[in-house]
Amino acid sequence: MDSSNYKIYHEDGFDARLDLETYFSDKPEMNFGDDSIIFPLENLTKTFAEGHIKGDILIEFSVSSAIHHLYAVCEFFKHIIVLKANDRCIMELKRWMHERTGAFEWEYAAKHHADIEGKSDQFQDKDGKVRTALRHVVKCDFEKENIVEPIDLPPADCIIIAWFLEFISKNQDELKNYLRKISKLLKPGGHLIFIAVLDATYITIGKDKFHMLKFDEDFARKVLVEEGFAIDTCKVKKRTVVSDLMDYKNALFIAARKEK
User: Fold this and answer.
1) How far apart are CA 139 and CA 127, in angstroms?
2) Is the pTM of this model over 0.90?
3) pLDDT digit string (tens) for 9-42?
4) Cβ partners under 8 Å of residue 96, min gap 6
């Protein structure tokens, strides 16, 4: 397929449930777990265990309706605010939040996180802790300067961007602009967690291919520094998955601090 025909995550129809089942489930045929579940959970758990990232407000941006990365951070903040650019992703997330019939099951990811923490007997508490902290799900629009207009959010102590900017950005200039808008929601001295896949051009959801912006580790580091962040941690994991559903080469985890 010509890349010009790829769909755009927040502009075209995006099946959030199918994305979760393809890239985040525990189905035997789902072989992305090392990169989409284990890698971010290990790095988030280690980063937050250091104890210097915490506060009142965490704002989260992520693809689809993924919540498993919040297992590692929910106890460090009083309130979690999730911002979504896609209505179907909001609907799927609220189905899980309100424990409705047919909601996506994250128990296996909770077990993985509990094992990483060394608390394998406490995984059943994870969903409740995330639901308690997750107070609001808000639609955002990156065409606006204030992406949550007409709402004014309190400045966040921490922002997580997980598998998001590479989905909504059509080119590198757009990514820089979107990061700048996100940065405005973070208080000076606050922390940014950036989780992404590198060198990707597409992702397959069912019969459709969706655009992904190709960039590498050097670009990610550069754009964060230019936006006023100091990078504390940067980890890259080489892809081991054999699949043509996505063409990324590496998984990326960055923890950074807003200096200005």
Assistant:
1) 23
2) yes
3) 888 888 999 999 999 988 877 789 899 999 999 9
4) 65, 67, 103, 104, 106
